[in-house]
Amino acid sequence: MKKIYIWILIFLFVNIGKAQNIAFEQVEPNPADPYNSGNLSGGLYCSIAFADVDNDNDQDVLITGNACYIPACTKLYTNDGNGLYTAVVGASIDNVREGSIAFADIDNDNDEDLLITGLAFYDPDYAHVYGITKLYRNDGSGSYTEVTGTPFDFVIHSSIAFADIDNDNDQDVLITGLSLQGIISKLYRNDGNGNYTEVTGTPFNGVHFSSVAFTDIDNDNDQDVLITGERGYDANDSSMAKLYINDGSGNYTEKIGTPFWSVERGSVAFADIDNDNDQDVLITGESSSYQRIAKLYTNDGNGNFTEKTGTPFIGVCYSSIAFSDVDNDNDQDVLITGGINNGSNHCIAKLYTNDGSGNFTEVSGTPFDGVELGSVAFADIDNDNDQDVLVTGNNNSDKRTAKLYRNISTAIGISEHTVMDQISIYSNPNNGLVNIDLGILKNVSIKVFNVYGQLIFQKENINTSIYQFDLNKTQGIYFIRLEPEGQNPNSFKLFVE
């Protein structure tokens, strides 16, 4: 007769009136489906992006890169709503590596179109190198068709970003990278129907091994832009980090006197780290003198930045960074990946939590693979109102990896925890039933997932004080999620023997 043991994943670390636990579990491969989230294709020179491509209210994902034994690979995966992914067979999207991808609604038809750049073909001696920049239009169901006749230069070692630069309610785009015509940073204006025209006379320096990010740094309701990267082809050429201010019509002027370190082969990301309603920035990468950095800069609200000293971040290059509120406490935490400069090419993937004032602390015991030459992105893959994460790249065992991790964290106020403490979950070894004492909680939803992310049991609107159900499954690990009305959800791990 099976026995069920419950390991409760709530640990009480009281911090400014909050009890919190931060925990992630890798979504394991489903042996019955070779295309699911446990076997996502990724590896060297990856780029990843989440979007709801088929308008079914869940987050699908596109991954490009150098997968094992495949020089360049692009795969689109659709989500079943519970975080279980299946590759789209026959997706007409070019295979690339060493590039960038971005989703945006280019034609205002309420679906996610796609721009993709990168190296599509090469030989070992790089005698023949073929880069692409291709725009694909979505039909609304996740089927993509290439848009021909675009004005974009083909690029590799690239970065791209969409933004409405001129406040006309459509998505313009900036493209950087190495093209057949040289190193570029080119801005293109959208006519509202997805037709693009190059904006001439911009002040942007051409860069490759680059990162770009738009945001409103000075609270004047337009999109400014930060560009980092390498300006030339060899070791004597300098890296840069330049900030450009938008006049509201899409005309840019370089902001002089910024404190940013010039970097290449890095990443930049904006976020309001201290809840003062302006956009701060984290910059990673390698300087012209080969020093690897991870530097945080706070914004005074007018677009003037000051380096925040004493951060716990480790300098990295070939890096990727992503902000997200992983513990639902209304501030921006951050995940950083990349290679560190310790002479061993060691790779990291470190998660740091924010105290709400922009002070970060590393989370110990995370399951993430350290990677470089990859990409990271947060998304709520299973519609449980927390941020899960996908990590891709080359790990410390020189293996190409793409791993998806489910967020099973909690972040609840002490008063809420007093109510949640009324929950008692226990097993009966004699009959294998799970018993839940819900106390006074009302309208409780119960969901149980297996390690593949599949929903195997669900019950809504439970109003009895004691609820009992038979898991009726083979031995293994399962996850139970309780969602009481008016309370934050809680996650528990179940072991069935």
Write structural notes for this entry.
The chain is mostly beta strands. It is 1% helix and 51% strand. Strand 15 and strand 16 (196-199) form a beta hairpin. The N and C termini lie close together (8 Å). The model is unreliable at 1-20, 32-38 and 411-420 (pLDDT under 50).
Q: Can you give keywords for this protein?
A:
disordered N terminus; 497 residues; 4-stranded antiparallel beta sheet
Distance N terminus to C terminus? 8 Å
What is the percent of helical residues?
Answer: under 10%
Which spans of ≥5 residues are poorly predicted at pLDDT below 50?
Answer: 1-20, 32-38, 411-420
How big is the Rg?
Answer: 24 Å
Secondary-structure-based class equals mainly beta
Q: Determine the mean pLDDT.
A: 84
Q: What's the total helix number?
A: 1
Q: What percentage of the residues does DSSP assign to strands (E)?
A: over 45%
What does the main sheet amount to?
A: 5 strands, antiparallel
Compile the SSE list and pairings.
Layout: E1 4-8, E2 14-15, E3 18-21, E4 24-26, E5 44-51, E6 60-66, E7 73-79, E8 85-87, E9 97-104, E10 113-122, E11 129-138, E12 144-147, E13 156-163, E14 172-179, E15 182-190, E16 196-199, E17 208-215, E18 224-230, E19 239-246, E20 252-254, E21 264-271, E22 280-286, E23 292-299, E24 305-307, E25 316-324, E26 333-340, E27 347-354, E28 360-362, E29 371-379, E30 388-395, E31 400-407, E32 410-413, H1 414-420, E33 424-428, E34 433-437, E35 444-450, E36 455-462, E37 466-470, E38 476-483, E39 490-496
Antiparallel strand pairs: 1-39, 2-3, 3-32, 4-31, 5-6, 6-7, 7-8, 9-10, 10-11, 11-12, 13-14, 14-15, 15-16, 17-18, 18-19, 19-20, 21-22, 22-23, 23-24, 25-26, 26-27, 27-28, 29-30, 30-31, 33-34, 34-37, 35-36, 35-38, 38-39
